[in-house]
Design a protein that fits this description.
The chain is of the alpha/beta class and 343 residues long. The chain has helices at residues 2-7, 56-59, 139-152, 168-179, 191-199, 214-221, 235-243, 272-278, 294-306, 323-331; strands at residues 9-16, 29-36, 43-52, 74-81, 91-94, 101-105, 120-121, 159-163, 183-188, 205-208, 226-231, 245-253, 281-284, 314-318, 338-342. Strand 14, helix 10 (323-331) and strand 15 form a beta-alpha-beta unit. The longest helix has 14 residues, at 139-152. Mean pLDDT is 95; it is low at 1-5. The structure holds NADPH dihydro-nicotinamide-adenine-dinucleotide phosphate (NDP). NADPH dihydro-nicotinamide-adenine-dinucleotide phosphate binds at residues 54-56, 59, 140, 143, 164, 166-170, 188-190, 193, 232-233, 254-255, 257-258, 285-287, 330-331, 333, 335. The site of NADPH dihydro-nicotinamide-adenine-dinucleotide phosphate (NDP) has 29 residues, from helix 2, helix 3, helix 4 and helix 10.
Amino acid sequence: IAVSLLRMVQSKKWILAKVFDGTPKQDDFKLVEEELPPVQDGEILLEGLYFSVDPYMRGYDLSGLVGHQMVGSQVAKVLESKHKDYKPGDLVMGYFGWRSHTVHHGDKSLGLGDPKIKPYILPDFQGLSPSLGLGVLGMPGNTAYFGFLEICKPKAGETVVVNAAAGAVGMHVGQIAKIKGCRVIGFAGSDEKVEWLKNEIGFDAAYNYKKVEVEKALAESAPSGVDCYFDNVGGEMSSIIMENMNLFGRVSVCGSISSYNATVKPKATVIQGTLIKRQLKLEGFLVYRWDDRWMEGIKQNLEWIKEGKLKYQETITNGFENMPKAFIEMLEGKNFGKAVIKA
Ligand code: NDP
């Protein structure tokens, strides 16, 4: 009895208490505790170190999740292993959800929608923080790398527009565009973000979309038109940007955050005529399309960081109990770069 008592691990987890109605609120979530079962053959016991809050947690319909644990990824440390591929101390990225401790079958994929990504041991980040496994060296980094390069296929000298430009994916896309020799224009939600984009990571132009008219901003910064548009935001802003695109422009449709909290889906200008006349190509994607090339993205992004070509930002909130707060603040734009919670 003494041995089994010693092995009992209590986990904290956040469950979704209600369906979101508009902007998520603190009382949409409930913190509960549970006792974990002992580790069986093929399983590992993990302790979450860093947790991710991402826009998809609001963008997806989570109504089926009410009463259950919130979905999400984390970087966790293996405390105990009965799986041949893991040993205590390994750092693992996995979609274990909003929970502090996990007993997981090491071979099982987990996640929302179709993430085929099984938990994996973090590659060597060469001294950089393991939290980057949730950001620039993880899913958002790969979203920027594959979603921009594979769909926009940017060429040197072309003009690229990206919005949510000071967020995890947006700031990364803009910097890849610079690496590829493009002109980059960004839209973000505060003057401080705009200054950082221009002064720290070399955006050719950046605007606070809450203060400027997008049409006027593009007339000023892209008088010869836009060739590639990496769309994180959707809605009316996207319609205006597409109306300013050149013949054979490419649009990578990554996210639509402007409507995630909407209780009534907003209307945007009809753009079909523009698509036809300008012969634009629009393509939506989910980053897991490139699951077979996952490590290629991480390796390239790490190389760019080490070469000084790629900068990143993280907004770290301390304390697992602050996950809902960090999530709500990220949706409000309070984050700069990747929003992460440190246990
Ligand atoms: P971010 O770090 O960019 O955080 C979200 C940002 O969105 C906020 O900081 C805020 O910045 C901005 N935002 C919030 N509301 C609005 C609004 N109404 N209009 C314009 N901007 C708004 O998150 P990520 O980098 O993780 O994600 C960026 C986008 O990419 C999201 O749309 C997400 O859904 C999508 N995504 C898609 C993936 C895929 O596989 N297709 C994978 C990963 C992400 P600001 O201050 O500028 O308003």
